[in-house]
Design goal:
DUF222, DUF222 domain-containing protein, 44% helix, 5 domains, 16 helices, mainly alpha, three-stranded antiparallel beta sheet
């Protein structure tokens, strides 16, 4: 079903792209209007919608030929490709070519939807790393927005740096859970019910929802909970910063809890304010997080932190629920409590994090994951089986690209040393006649023009 939809959409876009007329050329206004009208009539839609459709179709066919081929072959879902197109609209053709080449090489069959979006967002963040953008701290704002329908509803919008907003949301969620527990206790004992704004809790003998409690707490006490103790967060928030970014040698983006890209400068400021840093090692070529050995049932604190970096969202395929604050550590091969030596070890290789609902579904044997030696996991869904998918392990997205960039930079440096040696010994003319070591950045070009290599570099290029 998905493959047929992808193939059909690619065929439509290929046809629509043929109606492209340069939107910036004032001499082609009549021709452009004629083309838009023809497409609008054929698709039974409006010319305003056609203008966007033709633009995206032209971009897809012209600037994203490799990923468009994946769409036409049924390998890429339509929704994924449309998000890719939206992500590259404001980039240059050269940058689109880079993203097209990289995404087309991804193993799309083993990437769940949430991970595709995470990797696409991080990839897109490369091109914003050195742009002139306002600092997140300068965007702090609180504003009241009316619904626009004169219905008595308004919204309080709080804007600020991602870590601060996430921290506020986490404290508000923890406070609401603590108050909800206290409401439940009050109903059982007959004590006064806290935060019962409209008396509904006492009247209906049921606790308020977490969303309603979060509103009540903000409205009444600005996150003070009237003496009710709010538990400390079970986990810290991880900001994963590449070591070169931390050292100020690169501006590769960091990631907030392994998912949300953060500007390099902001990541360095966050790191500078911490007394303790935690080092996470990754494979230098694949980016896969390296396992930490353990031999006990309950994971150590270090193991849990490792899992939270590797599985910032539920490991179940297609699930995007965060496991940063609420989630469970699950044994892929069930732990044998009676005979621990028989299997199900408590080790990084046999653990992942899941949200409560999917964990219960796995416990009920409705979903069955099997971890393989290469770190991939095959998921069988349903009994009898209704679907099966093998997912590659989540990896650090920056390690392979940085390793490749360092390797290429070293090869180019060695080439420059060879050229300097030829010039010092007067053998450069012989080198040009007979050939010599090729510049890895300009293989196939005239090596005598190596002094122009700097012109080929783009300061905002990601290290692909």
């Amino acid at each position: 079903m998905q493959r047929a939809a992808s193939t059909a959409r690619a065929a439509l876009w290929a046809q629509v792209a043929m109606f492209w007329v340069d939107r910036d050329d004032p001499d082609l206004v009549e021709e452009r209007q004629e083309a838009d009208l023809a497409v609008a009539i054929a698709l039974r839609t409006t010319t305003s919608k056609v203008a966007y459709l033709v633009r995206d179709a032209h971009l897809a066919v012209t600037d994203l030929p490799r990923t468009f081929a994946r769409l036409a072959g049924g390998d890429m879902p339509v929704d994924w490709f449309e998000k890719l197109v939206r992500a590259v609209r404001d980039l240059s053709p050269y940058q689109r070519e880079q993203i097209d080449e990289l995404v087309a090489g991804w193993d799309l069959a083993s990437i769940p939807a949430d991970r595709f979006l995470d990797e696409l967002r991080l990839l897109r963040a490369w091109f914003d790393a050195r742009g002139a953008r306002p600092s997140p701290e300068a965007a702090r704002d609180v504003a009241v927005e009316l619904s626009g329908h004169d219905d008595g509803i308004a919204c309080l919008r709080i804007t600020g740096p991602i870590p601060e907003i996430h921290s506020l949301a986490a404290r508000l969620e923890a406070a609401s859970r603590a108050v909800q527990t206290q409401q439940r206790h009050a109903l059982e004992t007959g004590a006064p019910v806290p935060f019962d704004l409209d008396g509904d809790v006492a009247r209906n003998h049921t606790t308020m929802s977490l969303k309603a409690l979060q509103y009540a707490i903000v409205h009444r006490t600005l996150l003070e909970t009237g003496g009710i103790e709010v538990p400390e967060p079970a986990h810290r928030i991880n900001v994963v910063v590449p070591v070169l970014t931390l050292m100020g040698l690169d501006d590769a983006p960091a990631t907030y809890d392994g998912v949300t890209p953060l500007p390099a400068q902001m990541a360095r400021r966050l790191a500078a304010g911490q007394k303790t840093w935690y080092r996470i090692l990754t494979d230098p070529t694949s980016g896969q997080f390296l396992p930490v050995p353990a031999d006990q049932y309950r994971p150590t604190a270090a193991m849990v932190e490792h899992l939270r970096v590797r599985d910032p969202v539920c490991a179940a395929p297609g699930c995007s629920r965060s496991t940063s604050r609420v989630g469970q550590n699950d044994h892929i091969e069930e732990f044998d409590h009676a005979h621990p030596a028989r299997g199900g070890p408590t080790s990084i290789d046999n653990l992942h994090r899941m949200d409560f609902g999917h964990h219960e579904t796995k416990t009920a044997k409705q979903i069955d994951p099997v971890r393989h030696a290469d770190g991939s996991t095959t998921w069988s869904i349903g009994v009898p089986e209704r679907a099966r998918i093998t997912l590659a392990p989540r990896r650090d997205l920056l390690t392979p690209t940085i390793a490749k960039a360092l390797s290429e930079a070293w090869d180019h440096y060695q080439w420059l040393l060879d050229i300097d040696a030829y010039e010092r010994t007067g053998q450069i003319d012989q080198f040009l006649r007979e050939g010599g070591p090729e510049d890895p950045l300009t293989t196939g070009e005239d090596p005598h023009h190596h002094e122009n290599n700097a012109d080929r570099c783009h300061p905002t290029d990601p290290p692909f």
